[in-house]
Amino acid sequence: HPVLDLRRLGLRLRTHVAALEACAVRLCELQGLRGACARPPPYTGVWLGERKICAIGVRCGRNITSHGLALNCSTDLTWFEHIVPCGLVGTGVTSLSEELQRLVTVDEAMPPFLQAFKETFKCSLVSEDSSN
Protein backbone atom coordinates (compact mmCIF):
# COMPACT_ATOMS: atom_id res chain seq x y z
CA HIS A 1 0.00 0.00 0.00
CA PRO A 2 1.69 3.20 -1.09
CA VAL A 3 1.65 5.93 1.55
CA LEU A 4 1.82 9.25 -0.25
CA ASP A 5 1.35 12.92 0.56
CA LEU A 6 -0.99 13.98 -2.25
CA ARG A 7 -0.59 17.69 -1.49
CA ARG A 8 3.19 17.43 -1.79
CA LEU A 9 2.82 15.53 -5.08
CA GLY A 10 0.21 17.96 -6.37
CA LEU A 11 -2.32 15.16 -6.89
CA ARG A 12 -6.05 15.11 -6.33
CA LEU A 13 -7.51 11.91 -4.87
CA ARG A 14 -9.27 10.87 -8.09
CA THR A 15 -6.02 11.45 -10.02
CA HIS A 16 -4.23 9.21 -7.52
CA VAL A 17 -6.84 6.45 -7.96
CA ALA A 18 -6.46 6.74 -11.75
CA ALA A 19 -2.67 6.46 -11.37
CA LEU A 20 -3.06 3.29 -9.27
CA GLU A 21 -5.31 1.87 -11.97
CA ALA A 22 -2.73 2.76 -14.63
CA CYS A 23 -0.03 1.12 -12.52
CA ALA A 24 -2.04 -2.13 -12.33
CA VAL A 25 -2.75 -2.04 -16.08
CA ARG A 26 0.97 -1.62 -16.73
CA LEU A 27 1.76 -4.50 -14.37
CA CYS A 28 -0.62 -6.72 -16.35
CA GLU A 29 1.14 -5.71 -19.56
CA LEU A 30 4.54 -6.48 -18.05
CA GLN A 31 3.26 -9.92 -17.05
CA GLY A 32 2.16 -10.54 -20.65
CA LEU A 33 -1.54 -9.99 -20.05
CA ARG A 34 -3.14 -7.75 -22.65
CA GLY A 35 -6.56 -6.15 -22.50
CA ALA A 36 -6.61 -4.98 -18.89
CA CYS A 37 -8.19 -1.55 -18.52
CA ALA A 38 -9.68 0.89 -16.06
CA ARG A 39 -13.37 1.71 -16.33
CA PRO A 40 -15.32 4.75 -15.15
CA PRO A 41 -16.98 4.74 -11.69
CA PRO A 42 -18.63 2.80 -10.21
CA TYR A 43 -16.31 0.23 -11.82
CA THR A 44 -13.18 1.45 -10.04
CA GLY A 45 -10.26 -0.92 -10.42
CA VAL A 46 -8.79 -2.83 -13.33
CA TRP A 47 -10.88 -5.10 -15.49
CA LEU A 48 -10.60 -7.76 -18.17
CA GLY A 49 -14.00 -7.55 -19.80
CA GLU A 50 -16.52 -8.10 -17.00
CA ARG A 51 -13.95 -9.64 -14.64
CA LYS A 52 -12.11 -7.52 -12.07
CA ILE A 53 -8.44 -8.37 -11.65
CA CYS A 54 -7.48 -5.48 -9.36
CA ALA A 55 -9.50 -3.72 -6.68
CA ILE A 56 -8.69 -0.18 -5.59
CA GLY A 57 -9.49 1.12 -2.13
CA VAL A 58 -7.81 4.29 -0.94
CA ARG A 59 -8.18 6.09 2.35
CA CYS A 60 -7.00 9.65 2.53
CA GLY A 61 -6.70 11.73 5.68
CA ARG A 62 -4.97 15.11 5.80
CA ASN A 63 -3.84 14.45 2.21
CA ILE A 64 -1.93 11.30 3.25
CA THR A 65 -3.03 8.11 1.52
CA SER A 66 -3.23 4.66 2.99
CA HIS A 67 -4.57 1.43 1.61
CA GLY A 68 -4.25 1.16 -2.14
CA LEU A 69 -4.72 -1.69 -4.56
CA ALA A 70 -5.18 -5.43 -4.42
CA LEU A 71 -4.14 -7.23 -7.58
CA ASN A 72 -5.26 -10.85 -7.63
CA CYS A 73 -2.20 -12.98 -8.30
CA SER A 74 -3.04 -16.54 -7.23
CA THR A 75 -6.20 -15.84 -5.25
CA ASP A 76 -8.63 -18.70 -4.61
CA LEU A 77 -11.45 -17.35 -6.75
CA THR A 78 -14.06 -19.79 -5.39
CA TRP A 79 -14.62 -17.46 -2.40
CA PHE A 80 -16.05 -14.87 -4.79
CA GLU A 81 -18.84 -17.28 -5.76
CA HIS A 82 -20.47 -16.51 -2.39
CA ILE A 83 -20.64 -12.72 -2.74
CA VAL A 84 -21.40 -9.99 -5.24
CA PRO A 85 -17.86 -8.61 -5.72
CA CYS A 86 -17.73 -4.88 -5.06
CA GLY A 87 -21.55 -4.86 -5.07
CA LEU A 88 -21.56 -4.98 -8.89
CA VAL A 89 -24.13 -7.51 -10.07
CA GLY A 90 -23.20 -9.35 -13.25
CA THR A 91 -19.45 -8.95 -12.86
CA GLY A 92 -16.84 -11.46 -11.82
CA VAL A 93 -13.32 -11.70 -10.50
CA THR A 94 -10.18 -13.11 -12.05
CA SER A 95 -6.47 -13.34 -11.31
CA LEU A 96 -3.12 -13.25 -13.06
CA SER A 97 -2.82 -17.01 -12.53
CA GLU A 98 -6.26 -17.66 -14.01
CA GLU A 99 -5.69 -15.47 -17.05
CA LEU A 100 -2.12 -16.59 -17.75
CA GLN A 101 -2.94 -20.25 -17.01
CA ARG A 102 0.06 -20.64 -14.70
CA LEU A 103 0.87 -19.88 -11.08
CA VAL A 104 1.79 -16.23 -10.58
CA THR A 105 2.94 -15.55 -7.03
CA VAL A 106 3.03 -12.23 -5.23
CA ASP A 107 6.84 -12.53 -5.14
CA GLU A 108 6.87 -12.84 -8.93
CA ALA A 109 4.50 -9.90 -9.36
CA MET A 110 6.39 -7.50 -7.05
CA PRO A 111 9.32 -6.55 -9.34
CA PRO A 112 7.04 -5.67 -12.28
CA PHE A 113 4.71 -3.87 -9.84
CA LEU A 114 7.58 -1.73 -8.59
CA GLN A 115 8.63 -1.02 -12.18
CA ALA A 116 5.06 -0.07 -13.11
CA PHE A 117 4.76 2.11 -9.99
CA LYS A 118 7.99 3.97 -10.80
CA GLU A 119 6.89 4.51 -14.41
CA THR A 120 3.38 5.63 -13.48
CA PHE A 121 4.30 7.92 -10.59
CA LYS A 122 7.57 9.04 -12.23
CA CYS A 123 9.58 8.43 -9.09
CA SER A 124 12.25 6.33 -7.46
CA LEU A 125 11.32 4.23 -4.48
CA VAL A 126 12.79 4.56 -1.01
CA SER A 127 12.51 0.82 -0.35
CA GLU A 128 12.10 -1.91 -2.92
CA ASP A 129 11.90 -4.62 -0.27
CA SER A 130 8.61 -6.45 -1.01
CA SER A 131 7.98 -6.86 2.73
CA ASN A 132 7.44 -3.08 3.08
Automatic annotation (TrEMBL):
SUPFAM superfamilies: Class II aaRS and biotin synthetases
Pathway(s) of this molecule: Protein modification; protein lipoylation via endogenous pathway; protein N(6)-(lipoyl)lysine from octanoyl-[acyl-carrier-protein]: step 1/2
Protein name listed in UniProt: lipoyl(octanoyl) transferase
UniProt enzyme class: transferase
Pfam name, any one: LplA-B_cat
The enzyme's E.C. designation: 2.3.1.181
Similarity comment: Belongs to the LipB family.
InterPro entries: aa-tRNA-synth_II/BPL/LPL, BPL_LPL_catalytic, Octanoyltransferase
Gene symbol of the encoding locus: Lipt2
Domain BPL/LPL catalytic: 1-125
Biological process, per Gene Ontology: protein lipoylation
Sites marked Lowers pKa of active site Cys: 52
UniProt keyword terms in alphabetical order: Acyltransferase, Transferase
GO molecular function, one term: lipoyl(octanoyl) transferase activity
Active-site residues per Swiss-Prot or TrEMBL entry: 86
Superkingdom, taxonomy of origin: Eukaryota
